[in-house]
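Let's practice the habit of predicting before peeking. Look at the sequence and jot down your guess about where helices and strands might fall. Then scroll down.
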Amino acid sequence: GCIPKLVAPIVPAVEKTRQANPGIDETSLIAKAIEENAWQAVSDLMANSPEIAKMHSDGAVTICAAVYDIATGNVNWLGVHPR
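Done guessing? Here is the structure:
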């Protein structure tokens, strides 16, 4: 019963990636959608937490996106939000 609630925030990232990359193969779609989801999480954090957004705008915190690879344990730091 918890899976739909966990997956729901990921769907927009997949759709955005699919629209931006028509005809993309499934493996590439997954990789790009994972990154887009990380960026979406940063955007959601800023939109849903006025306190964090203010701290960010005041320079008190820096918010960076990253992707953790469960298979390897590696973290791919994507950096600060481009927008």
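How did you do? The mean pLDDT is 92.
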